Amino acid sequence: xxxxxxxxxxxxxxxxxxxxxxxxxxxxxxxxxxxxxxxxxxxxxxxxxxxxxxxxxxxxxxxxxxxxxxxxxxxxxxxxxxxxxxxxxxxxxxxxxxxxxxxxxxxxxxxxxxxxxxxxxxxxxxxxxxxxxxxxxxxxxxxxxxxxxxxxxxxxxxxxxxxxxxxxxxxxxxxxxxxxxxxxxxxxxxxxxxxxxxxxxxxxxxxxxxxxxxxxxxxxxxxxxxxxxxxxxxxxxxxxxxxxxxxxxxxxxxxxxxxxxxxxxxxxxxxxxxxxxxxxxxxxxxxxxxxx
Length: 292
Description:
The chain is of the alpha+beta class. It has one domain (about 20-285): HIT-like (HIT family, subunit A). The chain has helices at about 70-90, 125-140, 150-160, 200-220, 265-270, 280-285; strands spanning about 20-25, 55-60, 95-105, 115-120, 165, 170-175, 185-190, 225-230, 245-250.
């Protein structure tokens, strides 16, 4: 097998000879339909089971294309696939949460450079996701049913100093609470919870915003930004009026020549040290041209 062989490329025998975007079953899944269900055992070492699904989302048949080089129209196809697949997975009885995400860059640990993301269907709430759900529900309960993200977005748009880009349906800003350098959140202006809830206009606007943010990132230091992207949505089996659809970008490039490492304080205590003010990082991203 050639050293440059890629299972995601047309001609590999693993994918169609022609495709735009494609769901590809993960060859090394953490969760699968054939895995054992939750264990009946109790106690300290109770097994949760790993019955679920792991998909690879192929963004393009072009092996060398960067996500930042996808057209807005093509990002729209990716968003449509997120919505369709999320709806399908949530209908499965064992699925409690659907995580749509992307890892990009060798520094993140990516070994397959072909442009792709992933979708995991969990049979439980991942711990950090569960914490976010609990915090959002608590805020809503204590503030007359108000949505945490609606409140944050209104304040960010009013202040403007942390906003990176905005359109009719979405705004991208550097969070005041950001843990990573140039962390960005894309937040929906309308209150809804899931990618399948997007209107046609919102899908187009989200594709445009994804394109802008990705191009800004790759132009910020003059090379592709190593990052994690997480599409945040509501629980699969529980009504969650307190949840608000958004996307988080966690870039690990601290500067043009330095990476952000999660050392003892971050990993051992959960306290993130960020030596950059979010307002300064937002200004830097705003001034970065989103060119191809």
